Every structure is written in C-alpha cells, then in structure tokens.
Amino acid sequence: MNLFDTHTHLDAPQFDEDREEVIARAVESGVTRMINIGFNRETIPSTMKLAETYDFIYAAVGWHPQDAITMQEGDLEWIASLCSHKKVVAIGEIGLDYYWDTSPKDVQHRVLRNQIGLARELNMPIVIHNRDAHEDIVKILREEKASEVGGVMHSFSGSWETAKMVLDMGFHLSFGGPITFKNAKQPKEVLAQVPLDRLLIETDAPYLTPHPFRGKRNESAHVGLVAEAAAQIKGIAVEELVSITTQNALERFDIK
Q1: Per the count of CB atoms within 10 A, which of 96, 145, 211, 220 is most buried?
Q2: CATH architecture of 3-252
Q3: pLDDT digit string, tens, across residues 128-147
Q4: How far apart are CA 248 and CA 89, in angstroms?
Q5: Which residues pair with 152 in a beta bridge?
Q6: Residue 129: alpha-carbon gap to chain centroid
Q7: Which of 29, 2, 56 minimizes the C-alpha distance to 222?
Q8: Is the pTM of this model over 0.70?
Q9: Strand partners, 59
C-alpha cells in the first residue's frame, strides 16, 4: 500500500506516551506520507518539529476557528514565515466552527479572511475546517477568491449541494472515519458522487476513529480502513482507490 493520511494530529497529547510507536505502526500499515496539522500557538511548533524529524511527515500551519480569539498581531506574519519551509505544504486548518462556542463568529470570519488572503499572496493551498457553518464558509470562500489557490475541505460533512459549490471552486474533498459508521448516510452519499480526481482520505487522528475501533483513540495506521470503506462506496478495488487518492494528494500539495 502507498497510503497518504492527509490530515492528522500526531503531536496531540494523546500520543505523548507512545508517539514513535504510533508513527511506526502507520508506516508498517502502508502509510508512506502524512500531513500533520498545526493550528494554534502550541501545535504549530510541535508540528514543525515532527515535519523536520520525519522525512515522510509534512506540515500545514494555520489558525483554527476555535482558537481564532487567541490570534494576535504578528501571528499571521509568523505563519507566513513558516510557509517558506520546504516541508510546509498548506495553510490550515482554518475555517469556521459554529458548534463549539469558543470564538465569536465575527472574529472567526476575520481570521479566516486574513488567512485566505495570505494563502493567495503566497500561492498556498488551504485546509478548511467547517462545522455547522456551510452557508457562511461557501460565502467567504467565494468573496475572498479562494478558488485562486484551492485546497481541501477536511473531513467533509456537508450536503452534495455544498460539495458541488466547493468543487466548482477547485477544492478537493477529504473523508475520514465517519464513512465507516453504519448511520453516516450523508457522507457516504456525497462521497459516492465526488469525482475520483478530487477525492482524498484522512484520519484526523486522534479523533474520528473508524469502525471497528470507534470510541478508541484514532491513529494514522487506521487510514487503510477509510480507504477500504471509500473503495467499497465507489465500487472500485481498494488498491485503485489508494493509488488515486495518494496521487491526488501529491498533486494538491505539490509534493515531489
């Protein structure tokens, strides 16, 4: 297998006791590349450390909507400076989160718009976090001309109508553990309609653990379970699904 976990959080405290073993298990399971996500003042440095330690781990850096209220003057410049690093492949995860009431909506909007502007300035793809904010996320992506850089809708949970709008803006859609859940009707229906050349897979480890490990800590080794579920939904061999999604990720993130 040549699996690519396009969204993971290996620097999370849930891995403090066995991080090296977790990474080794991923490699043993056929994961050849991973993108670790740095999304605030604490996780950006730890993400960079992982990317500099492991050849096959890349980094995305940005400011998460839940942490938007903590973003200070100079943080955008900090993100910009890191984007010149050879292992940084995207700005993210950025976006909107209306589920957790941790940052006011107007602050989330401002922080998102600023980071899309930076991505356009640097010609970097963006990784979008969207929870319960489908209408506003599409509106802001359009207004800020995010189509100029494109990117990834991480752990996509929207409708096919939303999917079509972001696909039209040049985005890829990434799916994780929820497509393995018995009752996750919408993600499966949307994935079935997503063009293969716009499809990515991820774990979002340590969260969103796929069946049959749901309820336990997720890890990048489980991305193979996501691939198996996606292949079944698309009606193709898992080897073909893996080959396509890995090639998509390499092209989307300009990884040679």
Answers
A1: 220
A2: Alpha-Beta Barrel (3.20)
A3: 999 999 999 999 999 999 99
A4: 14
A5: 127, 172
A6: 7
A7: 29
A8: yes
A9: 36, 88
